[in-house]
Structures are given as C-alpha cells and as structure tokens.
Batch of 4 targets.
Target 1
Amino acid sequence: MTESLIPGRFRLRVAAVILALLTTGIPAPWPSAQDTPLPVPSRIERKNRAPVSAETLRVRLPKPVEAKLANGLTLLLLEDRRLPYISAELHIRGAGALFESPALSGLASTTAAMLREGTRSRTSREIAETLDRLGASAGASASFGSAETVLGASGLSENFDDWFPVAVEMLLHPTFPEVELSRLKDRLRVQLRQQRGTGRFLMNERFHSAVFGKHPAARISATPESIKALTPKLLAEWHRERYVPNRSILAIAGDFAPAELIGKLHNWLAGWRPPATNSAPVPPAAEPVPVRKVYLVDRPDAVQTNLTIGNIALDRRSDDFVPMVVLNQLLGGGPASRLFLNLREEKGYTYGAYSGFTALEYAGPWQASADVRTEVTEGALVELLGELRRIAETSVGETELEASKRAVVARFALALEQPSRLLGFALTRKFYSFPEDYWDRYPAMIAAVTPDDIQRVARRYLKPETMQIVAVGDRKRIQPVLEKFGPLEIYDVNGNVVR
C-alpha cells in the first residue's frame, strides 16, 4: 500500500491481519425449520496465536477525477504512476442481457464479442495483429443477468495513443461481418453442448429459474434456437440503440495526466452521439419464493450430487449489505467458515462447501453449494439447513465474529494495492450514488457489525423453510431422499420437465 493511502503503523497492522488469516437426525417430510437438527459447533481448534491488532483499518482512498464529455459520457480518471501501464473499462448501462427478449437470449453477449471481429477500417485479423504488436488487449462482454456491457482495454502508457483508438474504433464502428458471426455461432453451439454435460451449469440453470421465475435474470445462457436467430442486422440494431454515451461511464486508471487525457478523449469520442431518448429501466426485482421447493436434475449414473440451496435476498443499496457480507464470510466465505468446517472437516462429505450472494440494482440470491458423494446427499442437506437454523437461533461468539470481520477487511486492504480494484470501488460508488467517503468508512462499517446484526440478517434472508433446493445427480438414488424435504420437480439435462 502506498504512503498516500495508509500510514506505516497501519500497514503493519494490515500485515498482521493478513498473517492471522493465513495461519489460522433425519427430517420428516417437508421439514420445517424446527425439524432440522441444529449442528454441533465445529471441534476444529483455532489457535489464534498470530499477532493481530484490534484497531480498525483507516484509509483514505484516492479519488478519481470526474468529468463529463459533451455527449454525456461520464469519465472517472485515476492517476497512478507506479507502473507504466493504463487500463480502461467502459460500462455501457442499458446494453446488458437483462434487456434481451427470451427469444434472442445471447444477443447482448454476442454483440459484445463481435466488436473485435471487424470494423470499417480493420478486419478481425488486423485488429488482433495490431493489438498484439502493441502489447495491448481489448474486448467486451455482457454477462447474463447484468444491466451493462463492459468494454475493457489495457496496455503500456508509452503507446496508449496507438492502442486506445483501436478500442474506440471497435466501440464506434463495428461491422458485424456475417462470416465472422457464423464462426462465432458455431463455437457457441459447441459451448452450449459442453455446458450441459457439467453438473454445476445444470445446477445454476435450475437454481436461477427457481428463484427468479419470470425475471430476465432467470436466464443464464443462450439456447440453440436463440443463437440461430441472431443476424448481423439484429446485432447492429442492438448496438445502435443500446450503446449510448449518456448512460455510460468510462473509467481509466494508470500512468497518465488526467487533464491531458480529457482533451484526447474529447477528440476520440466526439463521434459518439447520444440518442433522442435515454431510458433503460431495470426490470422490477423478483420477490423471495415464499415456500420451500426441491428441484432434481437427473444425471443417470452420476457419482456425486451437485447441491445448492438459496433464495432471493437483497440489492446493493440495502442497509443490510454490510452485515450480509460479514454473515456470508462467517457462514460460507472460505475454509474457516462454518459450512466448510462442518461438511468437509467434520463430516467428510465434500472437498468444499461455500456460500455467496449477488446484490445489484435488483435483489439477487444468496446461495450455498457443495458437491457431495451421492450416498451423503441427505446428510449434506440436513447440515446445510441446520447451519441456517444455528446462525439464526444462536448468537455468534465474539471470537468467531471478529475473525470473520478481519477476513473481510484483509481482502479489502489487499485490493487497495491494485489500481483496477480502486477504480472498481469508484465505479460502484458512482453507480449507486454512495457518499464520497463510502469506501473510506467501509472498514469501520464492517468492524461495527454485531452479533445481533448477524442474527437479524440471518432471520430475514436465510429462512430454512423458504430455501429453494436444487440437486443434480442420479435420480434413482437421490429422489427418495429429496422427497423428504418438500414438493419435488424433476428435470432432464436438457431442461425439460420429467415430473
């Protein structure tokens, strides 16, 4: 960490925190929360012998220069002279897969991928050769469930004026050549077939469908039919209507002078015009599913069960976000978490059990997952649901809570070394209109989380009786087990309802 960010005495304390982290019955049919046995706390002994400061990390993150071009494009420019390197991210709001029609699933991601496949003045090969010669990279992506397309580019600062205009050309003047689109679609069809052979994909496909219902975030992949429907004309229309400057943020970090760069960006992006209308409202959030249901995806002769439980939780602006970060770290955020210690270290059911949550403009899900041996599917589910009861009903001890909070702050501290992560913090603050000092106060907000906060958030979002359960495995062996946990739907690997 730089001297400008953290004084020396605090750097020593951060190092100490990181060192500490490195050393450190069967339910009745459709069981209620009360029916699930409460797990016994882990017998793994934590030595807690590493020197750790109890003081809260205090930082002042460098603030990017903010500006706006005449076309409405917002700029976030973070000067960092430590390396002769520049990285840029253009976040185009309203151009993400969240706005696709179901019949054209994959339109946003395919449009993004095709930006590299030809412009008015360069072929796909010429783009690749130019970037390789300059030692730079550029490409775009549009993740399923996201409201945005992200165009990223990076390279040396000494030839920035050579490689960045290539990225601008990809952004403003793609041609979507039919021959390149045909090749891309062939590759996408192969990927679709391959992913249906993986239990993890089948699990996440069914889980997102279960918790999101008709919300567009339920879709996590294109389909053979939607890929076939894509044409250069459709891609060009999506690009023209969705790639607009006044809904976008260009964030650049690295070795440059902001005032000089703003002038260059004015010139390079002068041709990017805003549309007549500027509306891309995010679809209304999905509500948590009110009752528990079980979904089985049949993979005949599978030797393990891909298991996940979860439900819709909260969005990024929620006051419960910070307590949820700590709760998730404690419950399933790593090898010192309760789920890992229970299902792997104590029971030996799996190589690892983890949890996580997604919080965006709309409420996303919290979920816990583990790949377990087929014969312990029932026991693993009992323990997963039992851990939710335990964290909601039994107050967490101060030692365990402090260890979880230190782990969160340590990750944050490590991120401060990376200009791209600092820029990411600035983008988050801008997207959600957080206060200027939000990230300066973040370690203190984490440190302020109490056992009561953990219990309150757990009771609100992690209700065992409303958890959606998805299991991918051998139907013959696990169907009788799963029927004990709630109403059961069965699917094949192609997503078709079997029962």
Target 2
Amino acid sequence: MNLAIPRGMSRRHFLTHLAAGGAAGSAMEFIAHVSARADEVRKNQKACILIWLGGGPPSIDMWDLKPGSKNGGEFKPIDTAGEMQISEHLPKTALVMDSLALVRTMSTREADHNRGRYYMQTCYVPNPTVVHPVFGSVVSFELGSKRTGLEIPAFVAVGGSDGSPGFLGMTHAPFVVGSDGRIRDSDRKGDDPDRLDQRLSMLAVLEKNFIDSKRGGLPQAHKEVYANAVNLMTSKQMDAFRIEKEPPEAREQYGNTEFGRGLLMARRLVEVGVPFVEVDLNGWDLHQNVFTSLRDRLLPTLDTGLAALTADLKQRGLLDHTTIVCMGEFGRTPRINARVGRDHWASSWTAVIGGGGLKTGQAIGATDADGVETQGKTYLPGDIWATVAHSLGISLATVHVSKRGRPMKIANGGTPIQELIG
C-alpha cells in the first residue's frame, strides 16, 4: 500500500510498525471472514463513501445540463433510471440513478480551492483560532470507537486527503493509502523482527515517561495511534486493502484506473466495517479545454467507477447501509471563458448523494435556464453532512468541544434534506 501518515507522525515512524501488515490466511478463509463481516455490516454497521472530485467539477456539463442556453456547452442530456437527466457522457451512471439523488441548489460562499475544500468537508469556514475536523474524522470519532471488532482505521482515504482531525485528535486522522496495494517508502529498507521488538519496548518506556511529564494530550494520542499501528501487523482485516484478491472481472467492472481500484477498495473496506472511506479523483480545475478534458478523460473514469460501486453495493445488500456522496469544493461558472473553460463558481452547483436508505432517483431543487440562479431552497455543506449523519444514525444533537472549550455542533447545525429522508 502507498501510505501517508496522520499529521504529527513521520512516515518512516509509522511504516516501521506495518512491516507485517496485510498478512492473511488462505483465500477461502478470507472469503468466509469477509462474508461474516458483511453480514454484520448489513445488520448493524453503516458507512459513508465520499467520492471527492478535487478542483471543482462543472455541474452544468454533468448533472444539470442547459441545452439551448448560451452557457449549455457541447454535451446533451440523456434520460436515466431516475426522474432526472444527466450528461450523455455518464451513460453507465444513468443506469443506476434510481439509487442516487442530485442536490442541484448547492449555494456556498467559498470559491477558493483550499477554503472551499475545508468548508465542504468540515461544514465550517476556516478560522485561525481552531482547526475543525473533516466529517470523516467525525464519523471515526462517533462510530469507529464503538466498533470493537474493527482492527484497522475507521477513516481511510484512498488517493490522498488534505483533511485534518482537528480537535478530535490524531487517532481520527485519515489513514491515507494508495490504490495499488503496495507500501512505498524510499526511506525504509526493511526491519528485522527482533530489532522491531526492541524498538517497541524502548518506545514504550520513552512514551510513558513523556506522558507522565504531563506535557499535554499529544503524547497520549501518539501512543494510541502507535498501538493501532502495531495491531495492524496481525489483523486479517488488512486484506481489505488487497484488491488483487478480487476476481479479474470485478476489477474490470470498476475500470483499470487508480480511481476505479480505489472505489473497489472502498467497497472492501466497508465490508469489513470501516465507517468512512474517501476516494479522490482530482483534475477538475478546468479553466481551459473543459469539454475535451471531460469527454476524453474525467467523465469516462468517473462514470465507470461510480456506476460499478453503486451496482456492486446494491448487489451485495450493502447499499441501504452505505451512503455515497460525490462532490468537489464548488462548481464551475455557467459562462464559458475565452479558453473554452469554466472558472470557479460556488453560487449554484450540484452534489450527488445516494444509498444509505435515502429517497433516491430524484433531483432536488433547480437552477434557471442558464444555470446561474438557484430556484427555491438552497443548501450548505452542513445540510449535506447532516443528511449523512441522519443516514448513519449519528444524533444531530451531538456537540463536540474544541481544545479551547468552544462547543461545536455536528455538521455546524445543518438540517437534513427533507426530500431525501422523507
């Protein structure tokens, strides 16, 4: 696996304790293990898979087309299995839109990449006095610690994540992996098991002394993350990261791309009980050549992966317990610029959400004929994540407390979208 480490801990430090990670028994044993875990997930354990389209995808070319408008662009809308139309370049996704819904009146205030991502993933605008946790960390905090059988991290990010656990602590930071199933660390040449045991014993003494010195909460959080890393060495659940165990036809269904492999891994992680998985597909900052980039590269990749994930979860009986969210930090301008691109636009754009027992197959809200103005009720990131919290069974009355003692409402007090929850 290509691992990145929670902030505050070096890559080499963490990988040292994963030397034997991924050890597994026979294929039949693993299949039986996963089957049993999948039954448990279906009964008790809910999850969310966030598909993050970094850069800001153009809703008007994907989910909310405007044929006949000067802003409409080159693509045509097609009918779907739901009660909406989407882009002709998302034909596979069109077949599963009865399991997904569109929120077409997202109207957010942050049109800068970093600030927009922070806002969309934490529900709060950036504030110099506090670092808010991304929602994956919130789910890890609320659900992961309650899953006593879960031996791997409760928040996994495939393909990279800029998210922070904020005041919830390092234990709930995203565990970032690559989609190739291999550890890459040029600094590490391997470790002898005896030397590793010696290092563990030495570190245990050092950390105890450091904690006893009462220098704050970071040493204890470090010790917890370290202990989790050691536990990973013998966990059979590490096999969830090994997509090569999937039949070739399953891998082909998701697409021979890093994104497709990441989504296949996400499904495997959900099966063993991981409550939050983020899979990134970057490259959506389309200030030029928007239609060529969408048609030749981005939309085929997204279409194959999203459709396969939705269908696969449904076939396995996991879709009603797994909420899918697909969005970026904002949308893109309805107006096409001089370079045949679209610029940053946060005023009117679309987020995709589905599964999780939600009422799907519908488009919520609408924009005007040119895609500029929203019509009716608009939605903020807190409303999206409040809907996810509802689907995951996390109480919206939950209040977290920052390091400075400030109360922080879950999803920043957002309201679940009524059309989705009924």
Target 3
Amino acid sequence: MSAIAKGVIVVVNRGESTLTIIDADSMKSVATIPTGTGPHEVALTADGKTAIVSNYGEQTPGNSLSIIDVATRKETKRVDLGPMLRPHGLVEVGGKVYFSSEGNRAIGRFDLATHKVDWIMGTGQNASHMVVVTADQKRFYTPNVASDTVTAFEFSAVPPSQSKITQIAVGKQPEAIDVSPDGKQVWVGLNADGAIDVIDTATNKVVERLNLMGRPYRVRFTPDGKSLVATMPNSKELVVIDITTRKEIKRIKLDGTPLGIAFSADSKTAFVTTSQGDFLNRVDLQKGEVTAKVATGKVPDGVAVFGL
C-alpha cells in the first residue's frame, strides 16, 4: 500500500500484540503489524496517515506507545514512556496525543512532531483508565475505575495553562466514557452497576442514571450527537440510546462479544470489534444488522476509522 486508502480501519489485537489494517471498502484485512505488549486502544491522526497504539502490557505493566505509518504498514517508533505505566485511553487532537497512565493516576500528552511527552497532569484517583477531550483541548475527563469518580480538568487555554480540577462522584467501577460533540454532556459506563451516569458538564454533576441491565464496556456518541451506542459484552449486543429522550432505541444482537466501537462520519454505520470469534463487524445502525465482517487478530479491542 503506497498511499492511504479511501477508507481505513485499524484494530488492535490485545491477545497477540498486533494491529490489523483493514480496507473499509472491501472489508478485507491488508496488513498485520506487531506492536508493544498488550495493546488496548488505538487512535488515528486526522489525515489518517498515523496510528497511535497504547501498549498497556499484560502481567508486567506496559509503558510505551507504538507509532505506526498506515501507508507503509510499519511501526516507525516505539515511544518509551519511562515511569508512566499502563497507558490506555487515547485521543489525538491537532498533533497532540492525550493518553491515560493508569499506573500513575495521571494523563499525559505526547507531541507527534517532537516525539516527546510534553505535559503530565495527575488525577489523584485510582485506575484512571480512559480519557476524552473536547475539540478545543480545554476540557478533559477521565473515569477512575477504583475510586468511583470522574476527574474533570478545565483549562483557560490549551494546557499547560490555568486549570481547575473537579472530582465527580459517580456509580461503581466507571470505565467507559465519552463527551458529547457539543461538549455539554459526559456519559460514563458503570461496570458494577450495569448502568450509565449522565454528567452535565456545566455543573459537573450527575443528572441522571440509565439502567442497562449489564456492563457497558464502551460508550460512544455518534458524530451527529443524536445517539449513543454502548457495547454490552455479557449480552453480546449493542444498545442504541436517544440522547434527547435518554431512552433506548434498540438493541442489536451480535455473534461475538462486543468490545471497541467507532463510527462512520454520517453516523449510520458502526464498526465493532468482537472477541469469541475475533472479528470486526460493520453494523447498519438504522437496520440494526451486521452487513459485513472481517477476521482480525486474537481478542480485537480498540478500533479507529478514517475516511468513512
């Protein structure tokens, strides 16, 4: 592949420490690339040229990011994060990669231009697992699985700058998280409660709890901000929720155990990784059915898309 394909999907396989590149048009795997040990999440730059992978590790904590050139299908750099252990959640904004460091109770920022970590901020909470960022890079939210909180960081400008940190009490074992496209809401999946807490970002308070009757492994807003989709491993289904009414629209059954999720730009299609079979599934959210699937590596987890 000498150029970026029109539509590209990247999937990390934490069961074998690889990344799979998939051509979205044909829904065929075109390359499998070794990463660091135990990759859990992946992000793509806005131009689709670079994939960034968080190498969480296995029994031994990981402390690296894999930087992968999508066109050449090669890992161009493995970033040693030094004492920053268990990198997990990833967001790329404007050439900056924000990541959680679960082992250090912190979030950090990696500059793709200088290839250096140029900013770190502590949460003071236990098991800071994922991270989400508003488009202006002024607000960050990370769920702290072992503290039953979400840490909200608010900055006067792009960090480092004057900041405010708020610890928001939520339900039991918060892990999944996303911020709405308009920045007004943060939805947090609660592993132990089998529910979602809805946070009003103006007040940094939980305003509603939605009972899903099961663990929401990941929660993601569709790009149009109209719906949220939760992957439900125990029941092997997707739950689609209307943001305005906060009511379930539908549940979509899958063959395997759903984990990671990403969307097409028009919000009509979801791309969902499933273990127990190890596939990436293309799901028509309007029809509520899987329209195609492609084999990945072992235990596919995080997924990101470009050009769709």
Target 4
Amino acid sequence: MQSPADYDTLLAELVETASAYPHLAEAIDLECALLEAGSRLEVSIPPVSLTRDIAQGRLESGLPLLPQEEVLVSGGQQLSDFRRTVGSLVAAHRPELSDELDRLSRATTPPCSGQSMAGQESHSELGSYIQHQTLRPFLVAHACALAAMLSDMNFTGWQCPICGSGPDMAALTRPDGQRILLCSACDTRWPCQRIGCPFCGNEDPSTWAYYPSDDGVYRLYVCDACGGYLKTVDQREQVRPRLLATERILTIGMDAAAVDAGYQILPGD
C-alpha cells in the first residue's frame, strides 16, 4: 500500500506535461488550481487510534480503515468553506457551468456536517464532481496518515483499503507487470491481482477484454459481466513513468470513450 503523491510533486508534473497535451489545457489548468487550493488547507487529523491488529482485521473483513462518513463529520465548517472555494474555481475555469453552479448553490443548504452536503449534491454529475473535489484534500490527508502505518500489510481487493472507494486508474509496473490500483477519492495506491476484472473477478475473455492505445502504453479494460471499466497505463512501455494521479487527467478521453460505450467507474462503498 502506498500513500498519495504530495501536492508539489503532482503539480510540478502536471505543469511539465501540459505543453504536450494542448487539447487538455482546460482540464489541466482546473486540476492545478484545485490542487493548489487543497495544498493550502491545514486539515486537522485526529491521532491514529487503530492498532495494527484491528487494522488488519478490518481489511480482512472487507471494511475500509477510514469510512468517508468520519471525514464528512469531522470536516465541519472547513469542509463547507472549501466547497465554496471549489465552486468558485470551477466557475472561473468553466464559465459555461456558472448557471448550473448557481442552481446547485441555491439548492444546497449550508451543512452542519459534511453528510448533508454529500446527500444534497450527489444528484447531478456536476454536484458529484464538486463533492468529490471538496472531499479530496481531506481524504488525502487522512490517507497519508494511515498509509504509512499500513504500508506492509497484505491487501489485494478492488475497493480502497483506506476509504472504500473504487479505483479510477491502474498501472502495470516494472519489472514484472504487477497491477497497481489508484483510489478515485484519496489517491491511495495498492496492488491487485493481475488476471481478470478487478471488480467482479470475471476472467472470461469473451466478456473481459482491453483496447490498447496505438503506442501500446495505455489499455482500456472493460467488463461486460459487471459493466465496469478501468484505465491502465503500462509503465513498462514508458521511458519515464508518470504519477498515476497525473495519468488520470491525461487519459480523460478514455473515460469519455468508455462511458459512451455504456461502461462506468464502479464507485465502491
């Protein structure tokens, strides 16, 4: 299990990479703005109270170590304030969404806890995005605190061992092609079995397949058994592998292709 990449490293890599992907300039600029805003937060993290035995027991039982509800409740006013920051950044970088953002703002009662915010915003794609970006720095901060303690624990499931979310990116790593998953919510990375669909275990080649990019670096895995898809970068084919959190942004075209074909990112718990 690996902790999320730090903000400075991720920002530097995105900025360095941006010139090679001019068609993604808008998405990269917004991602950088959100990362910079998140890096300025001073997230208060309670002391880790889990013992290694309890943590291992939770993992073996299929339970995440940090249910998102705990972060939602503990975020309090800071979470509400950052939600407004996220909305303002999205409006600045995507002005065509301003009307919808205004409607979301009017429909969302200022929450006394993050739980009510999550419930109210999840009804639309934009609302889900705002919620995701609001929670992200809080989840990442907690994940960093927990991942260091759990770095050598055995875990190979598909849902994030820290927060229970599903992955939205994967890598086949050097030298032997081990598959590593990236959590869509807290950016934790962990190993997963190489063969078959990570979501449902399907190994039938007639319903589990992948579509490679022309250069062989990327693969879009799709599963007709569960309807899930997984973007994957084969880092063995890269001269200098990039952070998975960077690859997530550079491959958004694969997301569009998968959704258009009827597949979806499986969200986890």
